[in-house]
Amino acid sequence: MTELAATTKVEECLLSAPSENPSARVSEYAEGSLLSMEQLSVADVAGILANTSHLERMTAAERARVLAGRTIALLFYESSTRTRTSFELAAKSLGATTTLVSDKSSSIEKGESLKDTGLTLRALGAEAIILRHPASGAPSLLARATGLPVLNAGDGMHQHPSQALLDLRTILLRLGKDASTVHAKTLDGVTVSIVGDILHSRVARSDAMLLPRLGARVLLCGPVELLPEDALGLGAGIEGSGSLEIERDFDRALRQSDVVMMLRIQKERLAGFDLDLGEFVARYQLSMERLAACAPKAVVMHPGPIIRGLEIAGEVADGQQSAIEEQVAQGLVVRRALLVRALGVTV
Ligand code: ASP
User: Fold this and answer.
1) Is the preceding omega at residue 161 within 30 degrees of 0, hence cis?
2) What is the per-residue pLDDT across 96-145, written as a single tens digit (0 to 9) for each?
3) Segments making up each domain of the chain, as ranges
4) Cβ count within 10 A of residue 113
5) Which of the residues 92, 101, 212, 264 could staple to 242 if both were Cys, CB 3.0 to 4.6 A apart?
6) Rounded to two decimals, what is the model's pTM?
7) 175-214: per-residue pLDDT in tens?
8) Is 302 in the pocket of ligand 1 (CB under 6 A)?
9) Quick count: other Cβ atoms within 10 Å of Cβ 296?
10) Is the CB of 156 under 6 A from ligand 1?
């Protein structure tokens, strides 16, 4: 099924659903669902990180008993390497049985709707569904249709909450902070720049909703085509959300940064866009020269996939300051805690 077809189908459903807000109140959904960063309070985030550390300290044998006998479905309508694999390995390490359904090679290709696919998975014993979908709001729809806890593994340009949590844990560890106890001042004095294609990035949205609430100063950096002024409203209305700033000059942003988070240009969402890639690279690529000159100590992050030579130079991605592989590893450990939370298990 094409991305467009999948989008149209879910949007039809969303239009007929009682609430069109993709981040609608979580109380409508099974407890344990994680649909958007805004549903988590700082105390919720602290609980997830505390459980992450607790699960990490267990032996492999102890961990394998935590979700033994439980069934988790992964439902992916968009490509994924890190998110899918880490959720799957996290579930398996906790002893759960997993099943993967992707839009290729399933009845989705024959036109089965998201709702019917979800109900089928539930009938087969799935107790939670991890969903990636090109349409914003698809996880809310699925959660409502099935009554199961749903973990949003990325929905369109909306949210990628588990990525924000793994980014947070990576930042805490890299900055030598306690990764088990966070509060509203944990990131006081820390400046994080998020750079590049902010407009299309669900990662940027989730990070921008999380990091300021823990005290971080977040600079958004990119050309106006990829970073409209209204990005400043991200997180507005969330209790305790800090302010965001826009800094269009990359070197100036870098000079202030403790952490720099580079983003891929999302070509799959660029339809109708006329972006001069040469100019983008000149102004916004994180090259070794730029990093050495402006931020020789900053932690370099990227949610992946990285496009070497475009938003980031290969030598920076492979260099000492890069925490990119650590982010991937943190994805596995943080997602364990999200699965445990989804299934309501106390550890
Ligand atoms: N992997 C991230 C996402 O799924 C970032 C990206 O694709 O560029 O949103």
Assistant:
1) no
2) 999 999 998 888 888 899 999 999 999 999 999 999 999 999 999 999 99
3) 8-159+329-342, 161-323
4) 17
5) 212
6) 0.92
7) 999 999 999 999 999 999 999 999 999 999 999 999 999 9
8) no
9) 10
10) no
CATH number of the domain located at residue range(s) 161-323 in this protein: 3.40.50.1370
Residues written for the chain:
347
First-to-final CA distance of the chain: 40
222 lines ligand 1 (CB under 6 A): no
Cα 312 to middle of ligand 1, angstroms: 15
The token pair that represents 134 in the structure block: 């090109």
Six-digit token pair at 235? 């997180």
Residue 205 CB less than 6 A away from ligand 1: no
Which residue is associated with the tokens 């019917």? 116
**Cβ(303) to ligand 1 under 6 A?**
yes
Say which CATH topology domain 8-159+329-342 has.
Rossmann fold (3.40.50)
Ligand 1 neighbourhood includes 242 CB (under 6 angstroms): no
Q: Which two tokens stand for residue 179?
A: 């990764």
**For the chain, what is the mean pLDDT?**
91
